[in-house]
């Protein structure tokens, strides 16, 4: 179960994106990018995507959707390509909106950057993910008017200085941090991300014989 402070943080993020940022700063919810250190948890990408999607693009009779695995792609959804597709002229990290969904043929059409229209069918839908909230890694190379960074202590080793740098440099006008102040302290103090040790360096030094 989510810790109370994490659940409150998720609710605050939802409120900020849907109501307070548009009211106070005059920035549309669509121009706010939520960034989180991880996918799991109450303040993780998966949970925040569900919350924000429910508020920004709820189920409606006139909005068709395609079910793919445990995900639903609905007309109006904010999505992101997670793989390069030269044929479709779509690159990893490019965001867009679903303009059409055909449940019968399991196909959705996405308008990327307001100019590139691409249709994804069947297994190709695995190349798409919802993008109301994304990880810092997936945000690299992008720029958004407002960035909201979710910081919770339970993210553990995923809190590091580069995460803050990435979020700051993604924000064109405004950066908002939501979460535990101790998580910010931890990220500031941790100057390197978690490494995955493969033993390659040892083998290069000592040889394979």
**Per DSSP, what share of the residues sits in E-state strands of 2 or more residues?**
25-35%
The arrangement of helices and strands along the chain is: HEHEEEEEEEEHEHEHH
Average predicted confidence as pLDDT: 84
CATH topology: Rossmann fold
Query: What would the principal axes of the Cα set say about the shape?
Result: globular
Q: Assign the CATH class.
A: Alpha Beta
Largest pleated sheet: 5 strands, antiparallel
CATH architecture: 3-Layer(aba) Sandwich
Number of domains: 1
What is the tally of helical segments? 6
Rg: 19 Å
Distance between the termini: 49 Å
Helix percentage: 25-40%
| CATH homologous superfamily assignment | P-loop containing nucleotide triphosphate hydrolases
- The count of DSSP E runs of length 2 or more, i.e. the number of strands, is 11
Q: Give, in spatial order, the strands making up the sheet with the most strands.
A: 7-6-5-4-8
Category by helix and strand content: alpha/beta
Runs with pLDDT <50, length 5+?
A: 200-204
Notes on the structure:
With 209 residues, the protein is an alpha/beta fold. The chain has one domain (5-189): Rossmann fold (3-Layer(aba) Sandwich), CATH 3.40.50. It has helices at residues 4-25, 45-56, 136-139, 161-170, 181-189, 200-206, and strands spanning 32-36, 65-68, 71-74, 78-81, 95-102, 107-112, 116-121, 128-130, 133-135, 144-151, 171-179. The strands form three sheets. It has a five-stranded antiparallel beta sheet with strand order 7-6-5-4-8, with no helix packed on it. Strands 9-1-10-11 form a four-stranded parallel beta sheet. A two-stranded antiparallel sheet has the order 2-3. The chain is globular and about 50 Å long. The relative contact order is 0.17. Mean pLDDT is 84; it is low at 200-204.
């Amino acid at each position: 179960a989510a810790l109370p402070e994490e659940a409150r943080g998720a609710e605050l993020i939802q409120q900020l994106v849907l109501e307070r940022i548009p009211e106070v700063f005059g920035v549309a919810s669509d121009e706010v990018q939520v960034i989180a250190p991880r996918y799991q948890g109450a303040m993780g990408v998966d949970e925040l995507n569900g919350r924000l999607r429910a508020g920004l693009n709820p189920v409606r009779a006139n909005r068709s959707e395609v079910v793919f695995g445990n995900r639903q792609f609905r007309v109006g959804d904010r999505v992101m390509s997670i793989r390069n597709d030269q044929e479709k002229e779509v690159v990893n990290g490019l965001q867009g909106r679903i303009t059409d969904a055909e449940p019968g043929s399991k196909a959705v059409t996405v308008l990327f950057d307001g100019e590139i229209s691409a249709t994804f069918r069947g297994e190709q839908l695995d190349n798409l993910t919802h993008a109301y909230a994304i990880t810092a890694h997936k945000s690299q190379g992008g720029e958004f008017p407002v960035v909201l960074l979710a910081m919770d202590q339970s993210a553990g080793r995923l809190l590091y200085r580069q995460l803050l740098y990435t979020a700051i440099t993604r924000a064109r006008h405004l950066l908002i941090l939501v979460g535990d102040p101790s998580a910010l302290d931890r990220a500031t103090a941790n100057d390197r991300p978690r490494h995955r040790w493969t033993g390659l360096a040892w083998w290069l030094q000592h040889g394979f014989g």
